Structure formats: structure tokens, C-alpha cells
């Protein structure tokens, strides 16, 4: 059986130059490097410069992914940018990225699923490529969370950072078998009953302001391991793979303890988990492609690797993607 699969042709990432360490933060709020490392695993985060917008981060990451994929921007016909921190309320950050890269055909739009944004965006792009409506897609996760943090709230401002990552997908006919390359399965979920546990207290329609991030970390933590493990298990069942067949586990980078919990519950060996949160904190939709880029640059990922991605975020939203590189 011949089917279209979305094959990952290239990956890229960008982190702003300015680094803020835990020690820098301890001068702003009542916290310590020891507390932040012990509770989350985070050691530093990158902060976008004044005038550096989400689209600038996205364009830099996407450009690197296109160069590595050896694909010209004019051959891209779909741009999806996952972000909760757009440059403007409208138009979509994706159209600014489209123009910035010189992409002139097809469609560009944003996806808002906060930390699950990249998983949602991959799922959406994969469905367009599988149906044949588009052929080559840029899927980006880009955030400037530093702009929506309450820098006086130590329970949240120590956890997040800015960054962007991107992949180029291309539709390629495959055999519909376990050995196929590309995206093999995706699962996305949401449950709006949990909105109050993780949200931003502003918006154009409600307050006419941008607002600040608010989180009940302990409750989010409690839901994370269970919800993420569940959706991963569904993804594995759908494809017939066992957890120990995964070559690389590339999770959303929120908290080292959550990642350890998921890996233990699923039976994924600790050495297969890609961890980059120590370097950039929780970058929301950008964190999976940032980790993918790290795995690529460190040669942890190669053609044929079976890669499992997962995320959970505000909404709640959550999901998983299984792909063969
Ligand atoms: O990507 C979206 C998904 N988000 C997440 O996955 C975040 C999930 N949650 C977490 O990662 C963890 O819950 C946190 C890292 C946010 C917090 O860890 P915790 O073990 O759940 O700590 P806690 O919230 O229960 O707080 C423990 C104590 C509190 O003091 P009391 O009430 O026990 O006296 C806090 O006030 O730590 C205090 N605290 C801090 N102390 C020093 C909170 N923030 C800080 C801080 N420095 N920055």
C-alpha cells in the first residue's frame, strides 16, 4: 500500500544571545540556584533583545532548517508557526515568517496550543501533506515568553525562556510499513476544564492587555506524567511499537522530574532522553524542536532513528508524535 508520509528533511534552531543564569535571577527574586536546579533541572535561560520579536527567532531557526534540508524557500507551500507569544495580535506570526524567508505560495498560519504547540503543528502539517494538499511544510515553534512573565513571581519567572526551532517536512510516498520514514502517528488532546491551572491573565478581548503567565505548578505537575504517558501509550499502540524500540525520546522541556517520571512509567532508558532544559528552560512551543536540533548536532539522531516527541501545556493541551528520521 503506497501512502504519503511527512519526512523530516531538516532541522534548525535559534537561541537569543543574552543568557540569564539562576544566579542572575536570584538578584531579582527570592530564589536560589540550588532550588531551581533541584526542582526543575534548569540552570539558565535565553532572553530576546529589545526589538527582537518571535518572528525574528522563528526566521533564524527556519532558515537553518531550510539550508540543512537543501530546500529553497520558494518551494515551501505551508508555513505553520506554533506560538503563544505572537509579534502582534494579528496578523499571524507565520505570515511575517513567510515574508521574511521569501516564501510566496501556499498558506501560512499560527497554531496556539502553548507548550503543546509544536506537536499540534506537526500533526496539522502531517495531515495536509498526507492528503496531498501541500507538499513541503515549514513547522516552527517560536516563543518570547520573557515578555509575558511576571518578573516578581518567583514561582513562574524562573522556569521559562525564549527560543525557536523548526523542521522542514516533505511529502514522500512510502509503503505503509513499520520501516517507513517520516511521521508514523500523531495524537493530540485538550481539556478546557483545566484552564485555570495555567493561563495568561490578559488578552485583546478580555482585558485589552497582553497579561502575565499564571500557573499552579504543583497541580500541572500532578497531571503531566499521567496525561503524557497516556497519549504516548495510545501512539505506540496505534503503530505497534514497544517503548523499548524507541531510539530517542525528545520531550517538551518543562521539568527534569516530569521527564524522569514519564520515562520510568513507560520503560524508556534514561540515556535515550534528550534533555536541553538546563540550557534554555521551558521555551513552550520551541522546546521540542530545540531539543531535536541539539540531538541532530550531537549526532544522537540519524537516518532511521525512531523518535518519540511529546508535550503538555496550558488548556490543558497535550499530545505525542512518533516519527522515523
Ligand atoms: O510547560 C507547561 C507545563 N508546566 C510544567 O510542566 C510545570 C509543572 N510544575 C513544575 O515544574 C513544578 O511544580 C515547579 C518547578 C513549578 C515547582 O516545584 P514543586 O516541587 O511543585 O514546588 P511547589 O510549587 O510545591 O513549591 C514548594 C515551595 C513553596 O514554599 P512552601 O509553600 O512550601 O513554603 C514555594 O513557595 O517552594 C517555594 N518556591 C520557591 N522557592 C525558591 C516556589 N518558587 C520558588 C523559587 N525559589 N523560585
**Mean of residue pLDDT?**
97
**How much helix, percentage-wise, in residues?**
25-40%
Under the CATH scheme, the architecture of the largest domain is 3-Layer(aba) Sandwich
What sort of overall outline do the alpha carbons produce when their principal axes are compared? globular
**CATH homologous superfamily placement of the largest domain:** Thiolase/Chalcone synthase
| C-alpha end-to-end distance | 21 Å
- Gyration radius (Cα, Å) is 18 Å
Structural class: alpha/beta
Question: Main β-sheet, in a few words?
Answer: 5 strands, mixed
- Count the strands? 13
- Tell me which ligands are bound: oxa(dethia)-CoA
H/E element sequence: EEHHEHEHEHEHEEEEHEHHHEE
Treating each run of at least 4 consecutive H or I residues as one helix, how many helices?
10
The number of domains is 2
* Poorly predicted sequence stretches spanning 5 or more consecutive residues: none
CATH topology of the largest domain: Peroxisomal Thiolase, Chain A, domain 1
Record the strand order, biggest sheet: 1-7-6-4-5
Q: Estimate what percentage of residues fall within beta strands.
A: 25-35%
In short:
The protein has 325 residues and is of the alpha/beta class. The chain contains 10 helices and 13 strands.
Blueprint (SSEs and pairs):
Elements: E1 3-14, E2 18-21, H1 22-26, H2 33-40, E3 44-47, H3 54-69, E4 78-82, H4 93-101, E5 107-111, H5 117-131, E6 136-144, H6 154-157, E7 162-174, E8 182-190, E9 198-200, E10 213-215, H7 217-239, E11 248-251, H8 256-266, H9 277-280, H10 287-297, E12 306-313, E13 317-324
Parallel strand pairs: 4-5, 4-6, 11-12
Antiparallel strand pairs: 1-7, 2-3, 6-7, 8-13, 9-10, 12-13
The structure holds oxa(dethia)-CoA.
